[in-house]
Structure prediction request, 508 residues.
Amino acid sequence: MGTLGATLCAVAPGLVEIALRPGPAISQQHGFVHAGAVSAIADSAAGYAALSLMSANRGVLTAEFKINLLAPAQGDLIIARGKVIKTGRTLTLAQAEVFSQIAGQERLIAFLTATLMAIEGREGVSD
Amino acid sequence: MGTLGATLCAVAPGLVEIALRPGPAISQQHGFVHAGAVSAIADSAAGYAALSLMSANRGVLTAEFKINLLAPAQGDLIIARGKVIKTGRTLTLAQAEVFSQIAGQERLIAFLTATLMAIEGREGVSD
Amino acid sequence: MGTLGATLCAVAPGLVEIALRPGPAISQQHGFVHAGAVSAIADSAAGYAALSLMSANRGVLTAEFKINLLAPAQGDLIIARGKVIKTGRTLTLAQAEVFSQIAGQERLIAFLTATLMAIEGREGVSD
Amino acid sequence: MGTLGATLCAVAPGLVEIALRPGPAISQQHGFVHAGAVSAIADSAAGYAALSLMSANRGVLTAEFKINLLAPAQGDLIIARGKVIKTGRTLTLAQAEVFSQIAGQERLIAFLTATLMAIEGREGVSD
Prediction:
């Protein structure tokens, strides 16, 4: 997240927001934010939302995610909002909506769902 | 790709390889390469594989991708191999396998499928 | 839908509901409704939601869907609620939530996102 | 599977084939096999491929699958070939390719990846 220049704001239990300010380092050849950076903040927002509902000794790993890219990522700010859809004993499903903010207006640019696996006491893989 | 330190090697029509050398800027807190960086090179490998089969005046956009993360991304090199599964008039399906290379041994660490949309003459969104 | 015994209720533009009454023909070996039947009504709910926002001469095709299966499908009724997330010129993204209803209580059992492609004048593939 | 009229052929450890003969009960309004039936045999082929590599006291549950639908499902026979991509302690990733067979010629019509969860001793949810 530091390499991308993203900032994390926990909003509430099960809800997390991550914001990213567009710039040259994370842009592709047309000046839009690269899909990889959009995916990274969306996956992180979903993962932290899941983590925010777990007991302190547990971590989460992303087992899989799907992201639909709906519009080019551009504007003053890119904001990913993660939310837990369903918690389970082993697997949690979370989503993230990504918005671009231009002159105060938000527009949905991507939608992600992710399966997170709860991890306990597995050295090196907890998050 | 430059920010991540990735290098692109076209292998053959419909086949593309992207390699990434792990380092602090793209790692998460346990020293593994961040899932966002793994996704970025996998998505790019699939996208360039699709692009390699198109006529010169066309571009591609990723409409969606799903990635399954199978093992932590660590080692000397992370390699994404993109391959076209099926070309269509509007949509192309491509896959990417991501391997970690440790002491010359490769291990599958992620698997992606992506839907790429062919773009012609849409200013600013072609790739 | 007839083979499965499902019924379709359009709720509003962009919103569709499909209900399915569990029975032996669509159950697997433990008496739950088969994942294939759950997927079928979820995909249909998302597709009809997309179709409900299109002009009369257009059809939709499912290009892809992902479904997360969250709990066994059992109960008095299985209900899929489809909703459009974003419409586009060529591609529309829709979601469907599937609930099981037991003694009047609903519980989320599956979550689907689908990419629908708008089709115009392609003989045989419009829906 | 019986309702769909599908037949299962185990091919080898980690490889499973399911075949389906098109007919009115599983067709949509244009005479093609319904996407729900295609998904059902693809998911089953992937799931049985995973199951074929497990010890006898374990079952599998599909946690999620994504399917890309590449061409209409028609012809003399619809064949799903499931294959394990990677086995893990808790989660297994499998794929299925679905082909239509017309006059002896096969054509790829769908591609699925599925996450299967191994289950042991959970009454009612093992498969």
Summary: The longest strand of chain B covers residues 105-119. Chain B touches chain C through seven residues (CB under 8 Å). The beta strands of chain B are 6-12, 15-20, 59-69, 77-86, 91-102, 105-119. The radius of gyration of chain B is 15 Å.
